[in-house]
Amino acid sequence: MLPATLRKNQPTEYKVRIFVGFLFLVVVFLVGLAYVLYHQKLLQRAYFEKIKFNKAKREMKIFNIAGDIVIRGNLGTTIGYDKVHPCLPSDTRQDGSICFEWMERSRLYMQLYELDSEIQCYNLQWMGLSTGVDPTDCFDMSPASGYWYGGGQLAESTFQLGKANHDFAPFVTGKIETNRWGNILKRYFINSRGAAIVIDNSTPLYVSIRNNTVNNKKELCLKAKYDDFTFVNRITPLPQLNYSICTATNMTKLHSFMAEKKLWDGLRPEESNIIHSLLTEPLWEITAATKHDFFEEAVSNYTYDVIGLGFLKQGHVLLNEFWQEHIGDFTVDEERFPKFQETIEIMHRRGFRIVFTIQPFISTESKNFAEAVKKRLLVSERFSDRRIPALTRYKSLQSAGVLDMTNNNTVPWLVDKLKTLLSTFKFDAYYLDLGVAYNMPHYYQCEKPLINPDQYKTYFINSLQNTVNIFGVNSAIERPKTPTFVSLPMFESSWNGLRKVIPTVLTYGLVGYPFLIPGAVGGDYQSTEGIGDTSFNSSFIMKLPDKDLYIRWLQLATFLPVIHFTHSPNNYGDDSLLEMAKEMTLLRQQTVTPALKKYVGVALEYGMPLVRPLWMLDANDASCHAVTDEFSIGDDIIVAPILHAGVKERDVYLPAGVWKDGIDKSLRKGSRWIHDYRVEQDQIAYFIKMPDDTRF
Ligand SMILES: *[C@@H]1O[C@H](CO)[C@@H](O)[C@H](O)[C@H]1NC(C)=O
Ligand SMILES: *[C@@H]1O[C@H](CO)[C@@H](O)[C@H](O)[C@H]1NC(C)=O
Ligand SMILES: *[C@@H]1O[C@H](CO)[C@@H](O)[C@H](O)[C@H]1NC(C)=O
Ligand SMILES: *[C@@H]1O[C@H](CO)[C@@H](O)[C@H](O)[C@H]1NC(C)=O
Ligand SMILES: *[C@@H]1O[C@H](CO)[C@@H](O)[C@H](O)[C@H]1NC(C)=O
Ligand SMILES: *[C@@H]1O[C@H](CO)[C@@H](O)[C@H](O)[C@H]1NC(C)=O
């Protein structure tokens, strides 16, 4: 038995012990918390006032001058190592940049350059320090990060990048069906919170848009990586990721700041006439199943039929590459075009302008092939001496060499041929059918190393630009000099194909190509199911498109910068279709062309697209961002076409303001949805902007 005193004291002592123990735990917890907070504070430091960067986790947030977060990123996701150090003095730069190094893995330079009191840009440059660390940075693209746009056409053909889903793929031109990115690209991404990313041309860039495996949030990831085709020529021994992030208080301000301006620089009066003629007159593309169906009388009859229509203007006639016997001859096939000089003269008198398609490819069957090999004018096979030409396939060409435009001797050789041809046949311009990056031979090697196969196009366009008229190109990574137009990719003749037109036009306009040639009314090629890959095969027989599809496509095309036909509306032998086509032509002449012409001036001065997404009218309206099946011409006309088979109504969203209904001429208030808006088969929904003080 214990003494009574002890027994009495025991509970108190017990309580004291518990209390002391508790105090101890609290103190330990507080000290620990203070330690953790202190270190977090130390790690997540602010740089250049507006960047918060946690070096250990490599999490970055950038704020705009109003103090809102505009972009969040997870940087260096492939480093797999947390110990970070300031750079050695020998590695630091004297330009105000901050430098960190993750030992022997990667080094990061960050630098602020302020461009404007309202625009701040930061350059980030990652250098891989060992093989296998391909520098990779990812940016939040979840709905909370705003809407993202830019880059190029995607397989999903969505204008909003957040809806896409892509693993890493080289950021070079291709076909969306097989290569993930389309025929026109720009290394430019922008979000609605007011942040834009521009990646330097020298970066061997891979891009992915996919869910983060940890938190399932959508991310845009940029990676620098060498490979054996797209980024084969190494500028630095290990890949470097070099890009800039620019921020502003709002997206409209930022985008107009980033857009390339003064596109009129060096534009001659006759060149601006070309822009105007393309906006007012159609483009007639003569297609043929095989080159044997493409001959002088067929071309002449085609233009005769156009005149017979009566209501459509003459415009440009685009001849495909089959004017030559073998592609790469650069001479007219005299068997199929015996009196072509006369025929061209007749077509000119009828009021047409004639455009010849050329390609950088020389068929192995062409008489020029042997000469080009002998003179070493062709792209050669890698790992060989320069005498062995590298071969590729393109459209109807089964085997062809590629002119090496980086070689000093090639350009004069080609220019000479093109000039001779022009002076003999007196046509008006050339159309460059350049193919995409993947049409280069796999093991290509040029005289001057290309940083990627797309750079070839820039060489090709630049070396011809000032010597012959270039009407258009079908693939680009840099805007060709005005007035050269850029073609949209070919679209399948299906409702699905029709639905891809608007997102593609909007994306290309946004990334800096205001002067676009949309595909042909009704689509450019037949469905590929069961036939194999025909989308690049111009020799594939294009049947008359489905009538309902043709009608809806024509209505949409009426509002696009250029109206492009392969099949004339006459081919259906349907009077009501012809009647609708007449009405659309009248609408284009009276309403659309004046608006397009008005905004050409804006495009030339400020680089703003003619065909715009609704958010360019009101970037603060979330509904405008959500709508991707409508567009506007400048700020003046909203267009909401029917894009589904057999449908005669749709929902329409109108941005802020007062709008005049194009169908029933009533006035409508903006910032609201019109549900189940009725559109008959011969109609298209469009709305014209009225002054804000218009009274109902
Ligand atoms: C990084 O990109 C910027 C902007 O394009 C460029 O001016 C700079 O020279 C590049 N730096 C390196 C080291 O390539
Ligand atoms: C990505 O995440 C979103 C939301 O967390 C989810 O709805 C979507 O299905 C995911 N996509 C994929 C491809 O996993
Ligand atoms: C964007 O910012 C600019 C200047 O900072 C301002 O003039 C403009 O009204 C703003 N636009 C929107 C849509 O908020
Ligand atoms: C061209 O038109 C003429 C006169 O209408 C006709 O005789 C001839 O068969 C047509 N040729 C072709 C290839 O359609
Ligand atoms: C090609 O021309 C450029 C400038 O005209 C010159 O610098 C270069 O040496 C030439 N290259 C060859 C291989 O002749
Ligand atoms: C192009 O289409 C034609 C006609 O269907 C076919 O004979 C030819 O093999 C195709 N060419 C290619 C390169 O797919």
UniProtKB/TrEMBL annotation:
Q: Which keywords fit this entry according to its UniProt record?
A: Glycosidase, Hydrolase, Membrane, Transmembrane, Transmembrane helix
Q: Which Pfam families match?
A: Glyco_hydro_31_2nd, Glyco_hydro_31_3rd
Q: Which residues cross the membrane?
A: 16-38
A molecular function (GO) held by this record is:
hydrolase activity, hydrolyzing O-glycosyl compounds
Residues forming the Glycoside hydrolase family 31 TIM barrel domain are 322-473, 492-568
Gene Ontology BP terms: carbohydrate metabolic process
- Superkingdom, taxonomy of origin: Eukaryota
Keyword Transmembrane helix (UniProt) = yes
**What range(s) does the Glycosyl hydrolase family 31 C-terminal domain occupy?**
607-689
- Give the family, as the similarity comment puts it: Belongs to the glycosyl hydrolase 31 family.
Q: What is this protein called?
A: Glycosyl hydrolases family 31
